[in-house]
Amino acid sequence: MHWPFCLSKCPYCDFNSHVRHAAIDEARFASAFAREIETTAQRAPGREVTSIFLGGGTPSLMQPATVGAVLDSIGKHWQVARDVEVTLEANPTSVEATRFAGYRAAGVNRVSLGVQALDDASLKALGRMHSAREALDAVAIARRSFERYSFDLIYARPDQTPAMWADELRLAIAEAAEHLSLYQLTIEEGTPFFGLHQAGKLKTPDEAVARALYDVTQETCDKLGLPAYEISNHARRGAECRHNLVYWRGDEYAGIGPGAHGRLDIDGIRHATATEKRPEAWLLRVETNGHGVVTDDLLNSEERADEFLLMGLRLAEGIDPERYTALSGRALDPKRIALLREEGAITVDATGRLRVTSSGFPVLDAVVADLAA
Protein backbone atom coordinates (compact mmCIF):
# COMPACT_ATOMS: atom_id res chain seq x y z
CA MET A 1 0.00 0.00 0.00
CA HIS A 2 1.62 3.20 -1.22
CA TRP A 3 1.30 6.49 0.70
CA PRO A 4 2.84 9.00 -1.72
CA PHE A 5 3.42 12.07 0.46
CA CYS A 6 6.62 13.38 2.07
CA LEU A 7 7.48 16.48 4.08
CA SER A 8 10.28 17.23 1.59
CA LYS A 9 11.81 15.59 -1.45
CA CYS A 10 15.27 14.11 -0.87
CA PRO A 11 17.74 15.17 -3.60
CA TYR A 12 18.68 11.56 -4.47
CA CYS A 13 15.11 10.20 -4.61
CA ASP A 14 13.33 9.23 -7.83
CA PHE A 15 10.46 7.41 -6.10
CA ASN A 16 6.83 8.42 -6.59
CA SER A 17 6.73 10.87 -3.69
CA HIS A 18 5.06 14.27 -3.51
CA VAL A 19 5.20 17.28 -1.20
CA ARG A 20 1.93 19.03 -0.34
CA HIS A 21 1.90 22.18 1.78
CA ALA A 22 -1.85 21.98 2.46
CA ALA A 23 -3.23 19.35 4.84
CA ILE A 24 -3.91 15.94 3.28
CA ASP A 25 -7.53 14.76 3.44
CA GLU A 26 -6.68 11.44 5.08
CA ALA A 27 -10.30 10.36 5.45
CA ARG A 28 -10.84 10.73 1.70
CA PHE A 29 -7.66 8.78 0.92
CA ALA A 30 -8.60 6.06 3.43
CA SER A 31 -11.96 5.67 1.68
CA ALA A 32 -10.20 5.44 -1.69
CA PHE A 33 -7.77 2.83 -0.38
CA ALA A 34 -10.75 0.81 0.91
CA ARG A 35 -12.46 1.08 -2.48
CA GLU A 36 -9.38 -0.03 -4.43
CA ILE A 37 -8.80 -2.90 -2.00
CA GLU A 38 -12.40 -4.04 -2.52
CA THR A 39 -12.11 -3.89 -6.32
CA THR A 40 -8.78 -5.73 -6.30
CA ALA A 41 -10.16 -8.43 -4.02
CA GLN A 42 -13.03 -8.94 -6.47
CA ARG A 43 -10.47 -9.56 -9.23
CA ALA A 44 -8.33 -11.83 -7.03
CA PRO A 45 -10.68 -13.48 -4.52
CA GLY A 46 -9.96 -16.27 -2.07
CA ARG A 47 -6.39 -15.25 -1.31
CA GLU A 48 -4.70 -15.34 2.10
CA VAL A 49 -2.71 -12.22 2.94
CA THR A 50 0.62 -13.20 4.51
CA SER A 51 2.27 -9.78 4.47
CA ILE A 52 1.30 -6.12 4.22
CA PHE A 53 3.81 -3.37 3.44
CA LEU A 54 2.87 0.27 3.98
CA GLY A 55 5.45 2.07 1.85
CA GLY A 56 5.96 5.48 0.36
CA GLY A 57 6.52 8.30 0.32
CA THR A 58 6.37 8.54 4.09
CA PRO A 59 3.61 6.39 5.61
CA SER A 60 4.52 7.56 9.10
CA LEU A 61 2.92 10.89 8.18
CA MET A 62 -0.44 9.09 8.32
CA GLN A 63 -2.43 9.15 11.50
CA PRO A 64 -2.63 5.73 13.20
CA ALA A 65 -6.39 5.75 12.62
CA THR A 66 -5.80 5.92 8.85
CA VAL A 67 -3.42 2.97 9.04
CA GLY A 68 -5.98 1.06 11.10
CA ALA A 69 -8.69 1.78 8.52
CA VAL A 70 -6.52 0.41 5.71
CA LEU A 71 -5.71 -2.76 7.66
CA ASP A 72 -9.39 -3.22 8.51
CA SER A 73 -10.28 -2.94 4.81
CA ILE A 74 -7.74 -5.64 3.90
CA GLY A 75 -9.15 -7.93 6.59
CA LYS A 76 -12.69 -7.31 5.35
CA HIS A 77 -11.98 -8.50 1.81
CA TRP A 78 -9.28 -11.15 2.17
CA GLN A 79 -8.39 -13.76 4.76
CA VAL A 80 -5.39 -12.57 6.77
CA ALA A 81 -2.85 -15.07 8.12
CA ARG A 82 -2.60 -15.25 11.92
CA ASP A 83 1.13 -14.54 11.71
CA VAL A 84 0.83 -11.82 9.05
CA GLU A 85 3.82 -9.47 8.79
CA VAL A 86 2.67 -5.84 8.75
CA THR A 87 5.50 -3.39 7.98
CA LEU A 88 5.29 0.40 8.00
CA GLU A 89 8.05 2.62 6.61
CA ALA A 90 8.84 5.56 8.87
CA ASN A 91 11.14 8.54 9.07
CA PRO A 92 13.11 8.62 12.34
CA THR A 93 12.01 12.08 13.43
CA SER A 94 10.86 12.66 16.98
CA VAL A 95 7.38 13.72 15.80
CA GLU A 96 6.81 10.53 13.83
CA ALA A 97 8.29 8.32 16.57
CA THR A 98 5.57 9.54 18.94
CA ARG A 99 3.03 7.75 16.71
CA PHE A 100 4.70 4.32 17.01
CA ALA A 101 2.48 3.15 19.86
CA GLY A 102 -0.57 4.13 17.82
CA TYR A 103 0.66 2.19 14.80
CA ARG A 104 1.29 -0.85 16.98
CA ALA A 105 -2.25 -0.63 18.36
CA ALA A 106 -3.57 -0.35 14.79
CA GLY A 107 -1.95 -3.67 13.86
CA VAL A 108 1.55 -2.82 12.58
CA ASN A 109 4.09 -5.33 13.93
CA ARG A 110 7.24 -4.33 12.04
CA VAL A 111 8.69 -0.90 11.26
CA SER A 112 11.32 0.06 8.69
CA LEU A 113 13.14 3.31 9.49
CA GLY A 114 14.73 5.50 6.82
CA VAL A 115 17.83 6.39 8.83
CA GLN A 116 20.15 6.62 5.75
CA ALA A 117 23.26 7.75 7.68
CA LEU A 118 24.57 7.94 11.23
CA ASP A 119 26.47 11.22 11.04
CA ASP A 120 24.95 14.67 10.85
CA ALA A 121 27.06 16.00 7.96
CA SER A 122 26.00 13.12 5.70
CA LEU A 123 22.37 13.47 6.73
CA LYS A 124 22.42 17.16 5.84
CA ALA A 125 24.06 16.39 2.47
CA LEU A 126 21.38 13.77 1.77
CA GLY A 127 18.62 16.28 2.52
CA ARG A 128 17.34 14.37 5.53
CA MET A 129 15.33 16.21 8.20
CA HIS A 130 16.61 14.33 11.24
CA SER A 131 19.89 14.18 13.14
CA ALA A 132 21.91 11.07 13.92
CA ARG A 133 20.91 11.34 17.59
CA GLU A 134 17.25 11.67 16.66
CA ALA A 135 17.55 8.60 14.42
CA LEU A 136 19.07 6.47 17.18
CA ASP A 137 16.40 7.68 19.61
CA ALA A 138 13.71 6.64 17.11
CA VAL A 139 15.36 3.22 16.75
CA ALA A 140 15.19 2.84 20.54
CA ILE A 141 11.49 3.72 20.50
CA ALA A 142 10.91 1.22 17.68
CA ARG A 143 12.70 -1.42 19.72
CA ARG A 144 10.24 -0.88 22.57
CA SER A 145 7.16 -0.62 20.34
CA PHE A 146 7.51 -3.45 17.85
CA GLU A 147 8.50 -7.10 17.86
CA ARG A 148 10.54 -6.49 14.71
CA TYR A 149 12.22 -3.46 13.19
CA SER A 150 14.76 -2.59 10.52
CA PHE A 151 16.46 0.49 9.17
CA ASP A 152 18.04 1.66 5.92
CA LEU A 153 21.47 3.16 5.30
CA ILE A 154 22.96 4.60 2.12
CA TYR A 155 26.66 4.09 1.41
CA ALA A 156 29.13 5.15 -1.32
CA ARG A 157 28.37 8.71 -0.26
CA PRO A 158 30.69 11.58 -1.28
CA ASP A 159 34.07 11.42 0.52
CA GLN A 160 33.14 8.19 2.34
CA THR A 161 36.05 5.80 2.93
CA PRO A 162 35.87 2.05 3.63
CA ALA A 163 37.18 2.62 7.18
CA MET A 164 34.49 5.24 7.88
CA TRP A 165 31.80 2.96 6.53
CA ALA A 166 33.02 -0.01 8.58
CA ASP A 167 32.75 2.07 11.77
CA GLU A 168 29.26 3.27 10.83
CA LEU A 169 28.17 -0.29 10.01
CA ARG A 170 29.36 -1.62 13.36
CA LEU A 171 27.33 1.04 15.15
CA ALA A 172 24.31 0.28 12.95
CA ILE A 173 24.48 -3.47 13.58
CA ALA A 174 24.72 -2.88 17.32
CA GLU A 175 21.42 -0.95 17.06
CA ALA A 176 19.68 -2.94 14.33
CA ALA A 177 19.06 -6.21 16.18
CA GLU A 178 17.86 -8.29 13.22
CA HIS A 179 17.67 -6.51 9.84
CA LEU A 180 19.42 -3.82 7.81
CA SER A 181 18.82 -2.57 4.25
CA LEU A 182 22.06 -1.17 2.81
CA TYR A 183 21.86 0.64 -0.52
CA GLN A 184 24.68 2.02 -2.63
CA LEU A 185 24.01 5.64 -3.58
CA THR A 186 22.99 5.80 -7.22
CA ILE A 187 22.62 9.01 -9.19
CA GLU A 188 19.17 8.88 -10.80
CA GLU A 189 18.24 11.03 -13.78
CA GLY A 190 15.74 13.74 -12.97
CA THR A 191 16.89 14.21 -9.38
CA PRO A 192 18.78 17.26 -8.01
CA PHE A 193 21.79 15.01 -7.38
CA PHE A 194 21.87 14.14 -11.10
CA GLY A 195 22.24 17.80 -12.07
CA LEU A 196 24.93 18.38 -9.46
CA HIS A 197 26.78 15.25 -10.54
CA GLN A 198 26.65 16.25 -14.21
CA ALA A 199 28.02 19.68 -13.30
CA GLY A 200 30.91 18.15 -11.33
CA LYS A 201 29.61 19.58 -8.03
CA LEU A 202 28.83 16.19 -6.53
CA LYS A 203 31.54 13.55 -6.61
CA THR A 204 30.76 9.99 -5.60
CA PRO A 205 33.42 7.33 -4.93
CA ASP A 206 35.08 5.92 -8.05
CA GLU A 207 34.52 2.32 -9.12
CA ALA A 208 37.40 0.90 -7.08
CA VAL A 209 36.34 2.64 -3.86
CA ALA A 210 32.69 1.71 -4.45
CA ARG A 211 33.72 -1.94 -4.79
CA ALA A 212 35.78 -1.70 -1.60
CA LEU A 213 32.76 -0.24 0.20
CA TYR A 214 30.61 -3.12 -1.06
CA ASP A 215 33.20 -5.65 0.13
CA VAL A 216 33.36 -3.98 3.57
CA THR A 217 29.56 -4.22 3.74
CA GLN A 218 29.56 -7.97 3.12
CA GLU A 219 32.55 -8.73 5.38
CA THR A 220 31.33 -6.64 8.33
CA CYS A 221 27.74 -7.88 8.18
CA ASP A 222 28.84 -11.51 7.81
CA LYS A 223 31.21 -11.23 10.75
CA LEU A 224 28.60 -9.62 13.01
CA GLY A 225 25.76 -12.01 12.21
CA LEU A 226 23.74 -10.16 9.57
CA PRO A 227 24.67 -11.88 6.29
CA ALA A 228 23.09 -10.77 3.01
CA TYR A 229 19.99 -12.73 2.09
CA GLU A 230 19.45 -10.39 -0.88
CA ILE A 231 21.95 -8.15 -2.63
CA SER A 232 21.05 -5.08 -0.49
CA ASN A 233 19.36 -6.68 2.53
CA HIS A 234 20.97 -8.29 5.56
CA ALA A 235 19.31 -10.20 8.40
CA ARG A 236 19.85 -12.66 11.18
CA ARG A 237 18.59 -16.11 10.27
CA GLY A 238 14.78 -16.15 10.33
CA ALA A 239 14.48 -12.34 10.43
CA GLU A 240 14.27 -11.73 6.68
CA CYS A 241 11.56 -9.33 5.50
CA ARG A 242 8.87 -11.76 4.37
CA HIS A 243 7.13 -9.15 2.25
CA ASN A 244 10.21 -8.47 0.14
CA LEU A 245 10.75 -12.19 -0.32
CA VAL A 246 7.35 -12.24 -2.05
CA TYR A 247 8.75 -9.91 -4.74
CA TRP A 248 12.05 -11.71 -5.16
CA ARG A 249 10.52 -15.19 -5.27
CA GLY A 250 8.06 -14.18 -7.97
CA ASP A 251 4.89 -14.62 -5.91
CA GLU A 252 1.63 -12.65 -6.15
CA TYR A 253 1.11 -9.23 -4.61
CA ALA A 254 -1.57 -6.55 -4.88
CA GLY A 255 -0.54 -2.93 -5.42
CA ILE A 256 -2.83 -0.36 -3.74
CA GLY A 257 -2.48 3.43 -3.84
CA PRO A 258 -0.91 6.04 -6.15
CA GLY A 259 1.94 4.62 -8.25
CA ALA A 260 1.65 1.11 -6.79
CA HIS A 261 2.64 -1.95 -8.83
CA GLY A 262 1.11 -5.41 -8.54
CA ARG A 263 1.48 -8.96 -9.85
CA LEU A 264 -1.76 -10.94 -9.81
CA ASP A 265 -2.61 -14.35 -11.26
CA ILE A 266 -6.11 -14.18 -12.78
CA ASP A 267 -7.49 -17.22 -14.67
CA GLY A 268 -3.99 -18.63 -14.88
CA ILE A 269 -2.46 -15.49 -16.41
CA ARG A 270 0.01 -13.18 -14.64
CA HIS A 271 -1.16 -9.54 -14.70
CA ALA A 272 1.39 -6.76 -14.17
CA THR A 273 -0.58 -3.77 -12.86
CA ALA A 274 0.34 -0.17 -12.14
CA THR A 275 -1.82 2.65 -10.82
CA GLU A 276 -1.94 6.35 -11.61
CA LYS A 277 1.09 8.05 -10.02
CA ARG A 278 -0.34 11.49 -9.32
CA PRO A 279 -2.13 11.33 -5.96
CA GLU A 280 -5.09 13.57 -6.76
CA ALA A 281 -5.58 12.01 -10.20
CA TRP A 282 -5.46 8.54 -8.59
CA LEU A 283 -8.05 9.66 -6.05
CA LEU A 284 -10.46 10.78 -8.78
CA ARG A 285 -9.97 7.57 -10.75
CA VAL A 286 -10.76 5.43 -7.72
CA GLU A 287 -13.82 7.47 -6.82
CA THR A 288 -15.06 7.18 -10.42
CA ASN A 289 -13.98 3.66 -11.41
CA GLY A 290 -13.33 1.84 -8.14
CA HIS A 291 -9.60 1.59 -8.87
CA GLY A 292 -6.65 3.67 -10.07
CA VAL A 293 -5.14 1.10 -12.45
CA VAL A 294 -3.72 2.65 -15.64
CA THR A 295 -1.60 -0.33 -16.77
CA ASP A 296 -2.71 -3.96 -16.79
CA ASP A 297 -0.28 -5.97 -18.89
CA LEU A 298 -0.57 -9.70 -19.46
CA LEU A 299 2.88 -11.25 -19.11
CA ASN A 300 3.68 -14.04 -21.54
CA SER A 301 5.69 -17.07 -20.43
CA GLU A 302 9.04 -15.60 -21.51
CA GLU A 303 8.43 -12.27 -19.75
CA ARG A 304 7.37 -14.02 -16.58
CA ALA A 305 10.42 -16.30 -16.65
CA ASP A 306 12.79 -13.38 -17.25
CA GLU A 307 11.24 -11.50 -14.30
CA PHE A 308 11.64 -14.60 -12.12
CA LEU A 309 15.31 -14.83 -13.14
CA LEU A 310 16.00 -11.13 -12.61
CA MET A 311 14.40 -11.05 -9.16
CA GLY A 312 15.32 -14.52 -7.90
CA LEU A 313 19.03 -14.23 -8.56
CA ARG A 314 19.17 -11.23 -6.21
CA LEU A 315 18.61 -13.71 -3.36
CA ALA A 316 21.40 -15.62 -1.62
CA GLU A 317 19.15 -18.70 -1.86
CA GLY A 318 19.16 -18.38 -5.65
CA ILE A 319 16.64 -20.07 -7.94
CA ASP A 320 15.46 -23.52 -8.95
CA PRO A 321 16.17 -23.70 -12.72
CA GLU A 322 13.28 -26.14 -13.10
CA ARG A 323 10.86 -23.37 -12.17
CA TYR A 324 12.41 -21.21 -14.89
CA THR A 325 11.86 -24.06 -17.35
CA ALA A 326 8.23 -24.47 -16.23
CA LEU A 327 7.57 -20.74 -16.69
CA SER A 328 9.39 -20.21 -19.99
CA GLY A 329 9.02 -23.58 -21.70
CA ARG A 330 12.77 -23.79 -22.22
CA ALA A 331 15.74 -24.65 -20.03
CA LEU A 332 18.60 -22.32 -19.21
CA ASP A 333 21.53 -22.90 -21.56
CA PRO A 334 23.87 -25.44 -19.89
CA LYS A 335 26.85 -23.99 -21.82
CA ARG A 336 26.24 -20.54 -20.38
CA ILE A 337 25.83 -22.01 -16.90
CA ALA A 338 29.11 -23.91 -17.27
CA LEU A 339 30.95 -20.79 -18.44
CA LEU A 340 29.62 -18.65 -15.57
CA ARG A 341 30.61 -21.40 -13.11
CA GLU A 342 34.13 -21.45 -14.54
CA GLU A 343 34.31 -17.67 -14.12
CA GLY A 344 33.23 -18.03 -10.47
CA ALA A 345 30.07 -15.93 -10.96
CA ILE A 346 27.59 -18.69 -10.04
CA THR A 347 27.41 -22.04 -8.26
CA VAL A 348 25.08 -24.98 -8.76
CA ASP A 349 24.54 -27.25 -5.75
CA ALA A 350 23.77 -30.97 -5.60
CA THR A 351 20.02 -30.32 -5.89
CA GLY A 352 20.56 -28.22 -9.03
CA ARG A 353 19.82 -24.89 -7.32
CA LEU A 354 21.63 -21.99 -8.99
CA ARG A 355 23.11 -19.17 -6.92
CA VAL A 356 25.15 -16.08 -7.68
CA THR A 357 28.47 -16.01 -5.79
CA SER A 358 29.87 -13.15 -3.73
CA SER A 359 32.12 -12.22 -6.66
CA GLY A 360 29.18 -12.45 -9.06
CA PHE A 361 26.85 -10.11 -7.14
CA PRO A 362 28.72 -6.89 -8.05
CA VAL A 363 28.14 -7.76 -11.74
CA LEU A 364 24.66 -9.25 -11.23
CA ASP A 365 23.07 -7.46 -14.21
CA ALA A 366 25.63 -9.01 -16.55
CA VAL A 367 25.10 -12.47 -15.04
CA VAL A 368 21.32 -12.22 -15.46
CA ALA A 369 21.65 -10.94 -19.05
CA ASP A 370 24.01 -13.81 -19.92
CA LEU A 371 21.68 -16.47 -18.49
CA ALA A 372 18.56 -14.97 -20.07
CA ALA A 373 20.07 -14.65 -23.57
Automatic annotation (TrEMBL):
Listed NCBIfam families: hemN_rel (TIGR00539)
Keyword tags: 4Fe-4S, Chaperone, Cytoplasm, Heme, Iron, Iron-sulfur, Metal-binding, S-adenosyl-L-methionine
Protein name: Heme chaperone HemW
Entry's localization field: Cytoplasm
Function comment: Probably acts as a heme chaperone, transferring heme to an unknown acceptor. Binds one molecule of heme per monomer, possibly covalently. Binds 1 [4Fe-4S] cluster. The cluster is coordinated with 3 cysteines and an exchangeable S-adenosyl-L-methionine.
Cofactor (UniProt): [4Fe-4S] cluster
PROSITE patterns: RADICAL_SAM (PS51918)
InterPro entries hit by this protein: Aldolase_TIM, Coproporphyrinogen-III_oxidase, Elp3/MiaA/NifB-like_rSAM, HemN_C, HemW-like, rSAM, rSAM_sf
Main location: cytoplasm
GO biological process: porphyrin-containing compound biosynthetic process
Single GO cellular component term: cytoplasm
Organism: Bradyrhizobium diazoefficiens (strain JCM 10833 / BCRC 13528 / IAM 13628 / NBRC 14792 / USDA 110)
